[in-house]
């Protein structure tokens, strides 16, 4: 039986992007009328976020304005369908496959609402087969990309000869709250951007090829009684982010219970991992995790690169990191570790091995 392996990845960015200096001009305008202390805090948060630019499905002047939840959500639907179709067309071209050769279609997003879900539109637009099994995931937040790969692995491990597609599509800029000057809303605006990413996973005998990562194992770790660490509150004006400032400290406290036991199952330790494919939750989380792995001669360069270039794109981000890692052409036999944190509060791990 062939282990599930990632046959191809694809990333797509929306058409609008502004560098940090331009974004700062919008921030200054948005913060007019606030105290000098609040303005200085906002400047500091944006400049220290470690994000040089962020992409959006709308121009910046539309992000920084008051809009109804319905208007923003309708835009989310209108923009995401063609962007997702273009992403998957590129994925299929790279894998030299067609949509009707996919058995499972797993989609994940937490920044907009669609019923029917995006995958239903893609079935029609791209010609998926009539019995493709759809699995939309809507409440895993930043962990959705890793979770989608975990579900694909579980499905294919028990049904060899199949293919699964995971697509993460997010627009955190659509959740920006114009009238909310809280610390969490400012942090969200500073670190989050929009993006889409996908991965094609296979156990089909026709898809054997060198240089692709195998999904060796996966696990979830739950932080009990921490449901208010991360998430959204749904209010009349839309989705208001929940982000506890203690997230980095809480992760650090639990870290010894997350990765070492998971790796020990396979006779591995952190120093034996070649590539760290971690979700960039934010600069502080990266610094905290990097401090824990640096003593072993490890770094998070792929994660840092993605955060700096694109920002945090919620569930899509870890697939961006995987895409960048894959472009570095890991050697045969290399090991990798994928890690994301999301609402619940929970951590999702995947052990990778390039074959």
Question: What do we call the CATH homologous superfamily of the largest domain?
Answer: Thiolase/Chalcone synthase
Number of DSSP helical runs: 11
**Span of the ends, CA to CA:** 15 Å
- In order across it, which strands form the biggest sheet? 1-7-6-4-5
* Beta strand count: 13
Please give the CATH architecture of the largest domain.
Answer: 3-Layer(aba) Sandwich
- CATH class bucket of the largest domain: Alpha Beta
CATH fold group of the largest domain: Peroxisomal Thiolase, Chain A, domain 1
Q: Roughly what fraction of the amino acids lie in strands? A: 15-25%
Q: Report Rg.
A: 20 Å
- The structure class reads alpha/beta
Please provide a written account of the structure.
The strands form four sheets. A five-stranded mixed β-sheet has the order 1-7-6-4-5, sandwiched between helices. A four-stranded mixed β-sheet has the order 8-13-12-11, with helices on both faces. A two-stranded antiparallel ribbon has the order 2-3. Helix 4 crosses helix 5 and helix 8 (247-264) runs parallel beside helix 9. It is 38% helix and 24% strand. The protein has helices at 20-30, 36-47, 60-63, 69-95, 118-126, 144-157, 183-191, 247-264, 283-293, 301-310, 317-327; strands at 5-12, 16-19, 53-56, 104-108, 133-137, 163-170, 195-202, 213-222, 230-235, 238-243, 275-278, 335-342, 346-354. It is α/β, with parallel strands linked by helices. The model has no long low-confidence stretch (mean pLDDT 92). It contains eleven helices and 13 strands. The protein folds into two domains: 5-207, Peroxisomal Thiolase, Chain A, domain 1 (3-Layer(aba) Sandwich); 213-354, Peroxisomal Thiolase, Chain A, domain 1 (3-Layer(aba) Sandwich), CATH 3.40.47.10.
């Amino acid at each position: 039986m062939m282990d599930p392996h990632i046959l191809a990845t694809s990333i797509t960015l929306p058409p609008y992007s502004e560098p940090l200096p331009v974004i700062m001009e919008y921030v200054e305008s948005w913060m007019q009328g606030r105290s000098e202390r609040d303005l200085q805090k906002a400047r500091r948060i944006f400049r220290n976020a470690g994000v040089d630019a962020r992409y959006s499905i709308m121009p910046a002047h539309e992000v920084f304005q008051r809009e109804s939840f319905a208007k923003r959500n309708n835009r989310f639907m209108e923009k995401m369908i063609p962007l997702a179709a273009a992403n998957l067309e590129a994925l299929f071209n790279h894998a030299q496959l067609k949509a009707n050769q996919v058995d499972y279609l797993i989609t994940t997003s937490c920044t907009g609402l669609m019923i029917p879900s995006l995958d239903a539109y893609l079935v029609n637009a791209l010609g998926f087969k009539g019995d493709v099994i759809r699995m939309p995931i809507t409440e895993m937040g930043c962990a959705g990309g890793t979770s989608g790969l975990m579900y694909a692995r579980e499905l294919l491990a028990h049904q060899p000869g199949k293919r699964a597609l995971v697509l993460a599509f997010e627009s955190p800029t659509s959740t920006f709250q114009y009238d909310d000057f809280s610390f969490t809303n400012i942090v969200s605006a500073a670190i989050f951007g929009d993006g889409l990413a996908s991965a094609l996973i296979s156990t089909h005998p026709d898809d054997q090829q060198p240089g692709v990562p195998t999904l060796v194992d996966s696990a979830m770790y739950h932080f009990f009684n921490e449901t208010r660490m991360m998430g959204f509150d749904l209010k009349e004006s839309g989705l208001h982010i929940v982000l506890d400032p203690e997230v980095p400290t809480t992760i650090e406290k639990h870290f010894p219970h997350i990765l070492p036991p998971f790796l020990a199952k396979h006779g591995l330790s952190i120093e034996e991992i070649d590539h760290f494919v971690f979700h960039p939750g934010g600069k502080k989380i990266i610094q905290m995790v990097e401090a824990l792995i640096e003593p072993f001669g490890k770094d998070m360069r792929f994660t840092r690169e993605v955060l700096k270039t694109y920002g945090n794109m919620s569930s899509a981000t870890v697939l961006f990191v995987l895409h960048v890692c894959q472009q570095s052409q890991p050697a045969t036999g290399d090991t990798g570790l994928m890690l994301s944190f999301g609402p619940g509060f929970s951590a999702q791990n995947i052990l990778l091995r390039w074959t």
